[in-house]
Model the fold of this input.
Amino acid sequence: MRSETILKVDLTKGSISKETVDPAILRNYMGGKGLAAYYLFNEIPPRVPAFSAENKVAIMCGPLIGTVAPSSVKFCVATKSPLTGGWTDGYASGTWADMLRAAGYYGIIIGGIAEKPTYLYIEDDKVELRDASDIWGANTYETIRLLKERHRSDIEPTVWTIGPAAEKLGLRTTVIAEYRAAGRGGAASVLGFKKLKAIVVKGHKEVPVANREKLEEAARAAREKLIKNPITGAKGRHQQMGTSNIVLGVNAAGALPTRNFQTGVFEYADEISGESFRDTLWMGGQRRRPCPRCINQCTHVAIIESGKWAGIVDEGPDYENITMLGSNCGIADKNTIATAEFLCDLYGLEGISAGNTIGFLMECFEKGLITKEDTDGVNLKFGNEDALIEALVRGGTVTGKLGKLVAMGVRRAADMIGQGSQKFAMHVKGLEMPAYDPRAAFGMGLCYARSDRGACHLRPWTFGAECLG
Done:
């Protein structure tokens, strides 16, 4: 394994340095999470607040990113979480990490606090901090569009940004990288505190490979297996519907969070299933936006059909957002769920935590623990589609009483509301539960309890073995 280069950015000093990572460290702490954990453990002092100059954000790639290896596109964003006070890491796919590797870098570590809104511009050996005052306050899609226009020349740049929710230090935020979200735990809010709005990357280099012929041979074999697999192949459920293909299976297992986890069975599951999305908003599964080198091609594209955002084209929704913004809030309308996911991406909100928190607030509202005076007049009942959309807009802009409740996350909202609401605030270590009710999947319950970042749906995902066969 060869040495790699990472960037170290001190926003307080306005300085950027390049550091060579020893091959032994790359081997011992392999992958984005491993390398991020190594650097953050060694560089963040104990007990510093998440919102501090001393806290750092690590953005790290894995060894296969930028190569011919199939599906090798995800990067890691890690920091000390303002939501939980502990470790958090999020992941996103798309094209941004490929471009960072093409620029010659394995990762970026960001510390300090900028005097004014700033963005990082990377073009091969040129790395600069630039003024972002004119785009501070812009939503994620507008930021991506403006920065692409500003820096488009010989090649299209890739853009990674935070949204208004993170700028205003809401805690349930996500980084948006080329329209893909790297949640959870509020890493984007740490960047908002540091006044780093975006990272723009243009790279022209080839990612070095020790033995290109052997890698291509291994990649070819992996692709062939994926193509023949009944799940990931061209006629497989995962390719046709993405992760939403499990909605009906999870519901049948009694694990589909419904009305703030009050039950695990949603009576309208058929209306929000992957099959239903495939046959309507996704036009038979033909609208796709696959990641580079991915055989699975699970990301579908929906066109919002009605409402204020009618005509918007956006990715998804995936299983987690269909459930947490749908059944967990008592919502059975596909157009509303697609709009809700779009708003999460637009404002830089993390969809799982947003749906969890709003579902909790809906239960509080129906039990009389909060009233319209607390929700700025919004009738926050389960199943109220307009209320869900309004709660997301207010949470995404952190406006009014309702916006602040949504933005602070479920644990803090429960502590503020009190009156016994903590008993049905669904979180572990401060991180909101994702879209699997652990009462029907004990393995997932164990995962939630033991995960380093709180209620995690990724490591490990035991639900398939437990309930889907």
Summary: The chain has two domains: 4-202, 231-468. The chain has 18 helices and 16 strands. Residues 17 and 336 are 46 Å apart (CA to CA). The chain has a mean pLDDT of 94.
